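A note from the maintainers: we've had questions about how concatenated examples are separated. There is no special marker in the raw files; a new sequence line simply starts the next protein. For clarity in this README we add a label.
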Amino acid sequence: MREALIKLAAPGAVDAEPGQSFRVPIVTRAEFLEISKIRRAVEGLAAAEATPRIADEQITSLAEIERQFLDAKTKGNVAEALHYNRQFRFTLYEAAGMPNLLIIIEGLWLRIGPCFNYLYPQPPIGTQGHHNYDDVVAALQKRDASAVRAAVERAIDQGGQILLPHLPNDGLDQSSATTTRTFALP
């Protein structure tokens, strides 16, 4: 377990503390906005690069993952919705065939991953409603890299609009924040 936590400390997903303890860091609004700007650039790049390379079967798979995502979201199953959201994105990004870019994206997701829990609950939506992932799949089918990139960037922006109100202001004393959890290993 210690080795896994040390690996999580490298991208900033946890902070190593004295006495073999670890702390899940708080992401402030300023940090989230910075990471979102970087995510738009690198995830948009991965989406655009994936567009001409992705196989038709992968596009079909993405449409099925989106259906499962929307179904989980409609049912209020947060864990499943988060799982399928990540699966959709990383299936797309892996199709870019750029493993170093994928490592960067994974590090950014690790850093802000705990924030994703604030995406839910959301007002109920039907699986027939329009979603950014509809635009991704449609643009992939047309092999329109600009539209795929725009849909991914829009999804990042809209997620940020939901998350920002839940994040602490930059002047917050992080030692007193209730969202910090410190734990020690024996």
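[label: protein 2]
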Amino acid sequence: MQSFFAKRALTIFWCILLLHCVFQYLELPYVAVTKPMLTPLLIFHLLLHDNNIGYPKGKFIYYVGLILAFFGDVMLILINDTFFLSGMIAFMLMNLLFSFSFLQMNRLSKSSILPVCITLTFLAFIAHAFYQLLEAEMGSYKIPVLVYMVTIAFMVASAVNVAGNMRYRKAAISYLIPGVLVFLVENVLVAANKFHYDRDKDIFVIVMLTYGLAQYLIVKGMQKIYL
């Protein structure tokens, strides 16, 4: 049985994700069942291949980040201001923990700081343009959105920094960096849908697909590096 799930946990994840998107599009209440299943399936997949979840430290930090993603998923099932802000905070913490996990793979140094600075500068221009575009519609969310932008920029830059370690470069380029960039796109869509498009169901579906893809890519990257 364990071997069965070890081989098929990610397949089950994609099946649940697609089913969730159908429920989301049809605006069915079953999203409250499917959405909380997604992150636990990814954790379950990793645990089935992991003989020591506490070592190394970076891997354990990543597990904690995934647990926070689960809480964020649950809180965002109900779309209201209180739960949306709580979900934002959970994902902010996830971004930071993912970043710290990535930094354990390759510590910042003089030789690796240039790509990180270039990445942060590029993201700062994008963030400024996006913030200016939606600022008038954000209302009381201006500060939380700004803080969130900082945390996700930190996560993207940290993933780029992993590529500076020759041992992990292939996994970083193939999985971690694409994963965090898809996360960036997903977060842009979430903000645009909440503050500008008034919760369009089509965008909700795209958000969930990009979110699932981002988590999947990062899980695969962590598996390549640690397991």
